[in-house]
Design goal:
- This protein has 411 residues and is mainly beta.
- The protein has three helices and 29 strands.
- The strands form seven sheets. An eight-stranded antiparallel beta sheet has the order 5-29-7-8-15-10-13-19.
- Strand 20 and strand 21 form a beta hairpin.
- The protein is globular and about 75 Å long.
- InterPro entries: HgmA_C (IPR046451), HgmA_N (IPR046452), Homogentis_dOase (IPR005708), RmlC-like_jellyroll (IPR014710), RmlC_Cupin_sf (IPR011051).
- Belongs to the homogentisate dioxygenase family.
- This is Homogentisate 1,2-dioxygenase.
């Protein structure tokens, strides 16, 4: 995020000496993206960031994936999914491909271990709950409706103040605002549906570094890649990673709350890109929020049928009134997966029922991927097998399963 910040103790010029009151030299560390060619921050540490005393295997939760074959739309009931309570180790893989993985966890109130995702950025949507994320940059508070953006290789730990439902979007790349929202120098433009005032970075650096000052032999869980796939390592550091006394730059974690997103509406139905909030390599993140709908006198407020020619669409329903979806099984806590190669959209009766509507009271987080998504073990465990047949009202056994006709996809 190209929005410069300076926090804590810094030398007047970069790459020059910074000492404490006793004359001890702080260690300077550059944390940067794309080699030395993109956003970065300089961190000043008490300890040596590369000083490890042990490295062992961290056995990850099941990362296996099952292709969506035979091809069909899917409905996953995340609120029926049992997870561990650790915000990091308790995640269950729901959907994924080689670009992005979606996991879900319902936490307790115990803090997670210190954790580092060395594969890519994380965008964690807070479905419910409050707490903080402690990081090397300081403490980031979170609340319901927040996207928590954590850059790749940022040491952090989750400290829930109450049980929290976390929807983790883990990229193999960086996650950032859409390029069309940004000036050539990185400022969010006037047509963007949010601005820098809506982004909330870390605070409380001094308090955090003091609380960890005397801690040694600290374990850090590191998720990384090998030629064999995604693996985990448990690294033990001589001193606590939260030993940063100051930093400056344009790379750091932050939160953005969907309440601060300003929906873009139009005279006729607007396509999903107007709802985009972030993007990564081969995927985008959108949010569909309560909003006034189309105002043309002959407008059809629900979406037209559309075929995902180049992408799979994942919709996570997080709030609002879903009475209109009665019979489809979709409700708060549901995921719908509409894969490429299959057209989806409104059930015919929903089109007529929507005419004259002036407002939609629904909230959903959407991830569109440009490579096919596969089901994780958590996705398989949470599936409603009747969903695919709800448009026709009957399935292979001619019974229609446990649902009636589906209504419309929010997108």
């Amino acid at each position: 995020m190209a929005h410069y910040r300076a926090v804590g103790r810094l030398p007047r010029q970069r790459h020059t000496q910074l000492r404490d009151d006793d004359g001890h030299l702080f260690r300077e560390e550059l944390m940067g993206e794309e080699g030395f060619s993109s956003d970065s921050s300089l961190l000043y540490r008490r300890g040596v960031p590369s000083a490890i005393t042990d490295s062992t295997v961290w056995e990850l939760a099941d990362q296996s994936r099952t292709p969506n074959h035979p091809l069909k739309p899917r409905h996953l009931k995340l609120h029926d999914l049992e997870t561990g309570t650790c915000p990091v180790e308790g995640r269950r893989l729901v959907l994924g491909n080689n670009d992005v993985r979606i996991a879900y966890v319902v936490t307790g109130t115990d803090a997670s271990p210190v954790y580092r995702n060395a594969i890519g950025d994380e965008c964690v949507y807070v479905e419910s709950g409050t707490g903080v994320v402690e990081t090397v940059f300081g403490t980031v508070a979170y609340r319901q409706g927040d996207y928590v953006i954590i850059p790749r290789a940022t040491d952090h730990r989750w400290v829930p103040a109450e049980p929290s439902r976390l929807y983790a979007i883990e990229a193999n790349s960086h996650i950032h605002p859409p390029k069309r929202y940004l000036s050539r120098f990185g400022q969010l433009l006037e047509h963007a549906p949010y601005c820098e005032r809506d982004l909330h970075g870390p605070e409380g650096l001094d308090e955090l570094v003091e609380s960890c000052r005397d801690l040694t032999d600290v374990e850090v869980l590191v998720k990384h890649r090998t030629s064999g796939g995604i693996v985990g390592t448990r690294m033990t550091y001589a001193t606590h990673p939260f030993d940063v006394v100051g930093w400056d730059g344009c790379l750091y974690p932050y939160t953005f709350n969907i309440e601060d997103y300003m929906p873009i509406t139009g005279k006729v139905h607007q396509p999903p890109p107007v709802h985009q909030v972030f993007e990564g390599w081969n995927f985008v993140v959108c949010n569909f929020l309560p909003r006034k709908v189309d105002y043309h006198e002959l407008a059809i407020p629900v979406p037209y049928y559309h075929s995902n020619v180049d992408s799979d669409e994942v919709m996570f329903y997080v709030g609002g009134d879903y009475e209109a979806r009665k019979g489809s099984g979709i409700n708060v806590g549901s995921i719908s997966l509409h894969p490429g190669g299959h057209a989806h959209g409104p059930q015919p009766s929903a089109i007529e029922a929507s005419l004259g509507a002036e407002y939609f009271d629904e909230s959903a987080v959407m991830v569109d991927t440009f490579a096919p998504l596969e089901l994780g073990e958590g996705g398989l465990a949470a599936e409603d097998p009747a969903y695919a047949w709800t448009w026709a009202g009957r399935g292979p056994d001619a019974s229609g399963g446990d649902g009636g006709p589906a209504v419309f996809s929010n997108s």
